[in-house]
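Recall that a protein's primary structure is simply its ordered list of amino acids. Everything else, from secondary elements to tertiary packing, is in principle encoded there. The following example makes that idea concrete.
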Amino acid sequence: MMHAVVHPVSEQLLEAAHIHQPQAVLLFGEEGVGLRTVAKHYFEPKGSIVLEVLPEKNDTVDIEKGVITVESIRRLYDTLRTTSAQRRIICIDYAERMGIPAQNAFLKLLEEPPENTQFILLSHMERTLLPTVMSRVQAIELRRTTQEQSAALLDLLGVADQKKRTQLLFIASGLPAELTRLVQNEAYFAARAEMVTDARVLVAGSSYDRLLLAKKYKDTRVKALTLLSDAAKQVQLALTKDPSDRMITVLSKLEAAQVRIVEQGNVRLQLAALAVF
């Protein structure tokens, strides 16, 4: 298991939660910050029973295209009806994939939690969760790690080539899980580098180029969201140098498209709508 690399501010909050062990915790942060690794490190003690709830499609776990349905929550209900002498940790990964009906069903578990059970929610878009759900969890943001932590992680991973380090940090500085995956999987690194290039086109290319990107990414929700995230990062960087009205509008449209795609909006239509900023 990857070592948990955490921003110092987030680490203080995690340590406090680790001591007090609240009934329900929400860990949220950007894709690649290492939510699952942190959850294992702080909230899954040895000897506990860990049950994971993951997005599904056609009754099969599908991280890219799946959702967490009411039926998934009902199965969880059935599982938790039995008592257990061991502590049970219920980890709901990609909690933003719960639709409103599933969140309402899950809310009943939060309101009347089974004994000896703790809920850990992981989300990259916590704003999609209902206020009633948010009010019943202790929310902890996993901030991006510092530049020094990212550099130290690359040292630990044995990356010495300066050009490669620069590329890696451009793609995933502050995101330890993503940095680790990029270093350990060369094919994935090449694919992500291509996606960063596509994100530049999405921000600065022609309308025709953007329509071609909509066609390229229409079939994979996760990749589409990553593309939008990469584009948003590039716009945020541009805004630090030139806070123009156009870039502010672009960022707003990118973020709105992300939310709609997470909420199961049609990927191709949402990307095509960005053809004209």
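The beta strands are 24-28, 49-53, 56-57, 60-61, 88-92, 117-123, 138-141. The first helix runs from residue 8 to 20.
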